[in-house]
Design brief:
It is a single chain. This protein has one domain. The two termini are 21 Å apart. The protein is mostly helical and 98 residues long. Helices cover 69% and strands 0% of the residues.
Length: 98
């Protein structure tokens, strides 16, 4: 696939980074509740499983961020074909923007 399904802007990438901060706050709240005894579990396995679930969510989000990065900078499978690049360079040299 040479064209992304949608254009990724700086805003999209900034939004994804901000979502990581929100998720960090959720993790801190969970940790505080466990530490303070507000969240009790029948076993350490439950807490371990929960933390691994959080790790999987972070991995998935990191993958999404990398995909947005590649789309925005047209890397890997979103790399533009040579004809398009030449057209874009010519347009930029003539002062045209897309």
């Amino acid at each position: 696939m040479s064209e992304p399904l949608f254009d990724v802007s700086r805003f999209d990438i900034e939004q994804e980074i901000m979502e990581i901060g929100n998720f960090a706050s959720i993790l801190k709240n969970y940790a505080d509740m466990v530490y303070d005894g507000q969240w009790t579990s029948s076993s350490q396995d439950d807490i371990h499983t929960t933390l691994h679930g959080f790790a999987h969510l972070l991995d998935a989000h990191a993958d999404k961020m990398m995909q947005s990065h590649c789309k925005h900078y047209r890397l890997n499978e979103w790399k533009e074909n040579t004809d398009y690049e030449q057209t874009t360079e010519n347009s930029m040299a003539q002062g045209k923007t897309s």
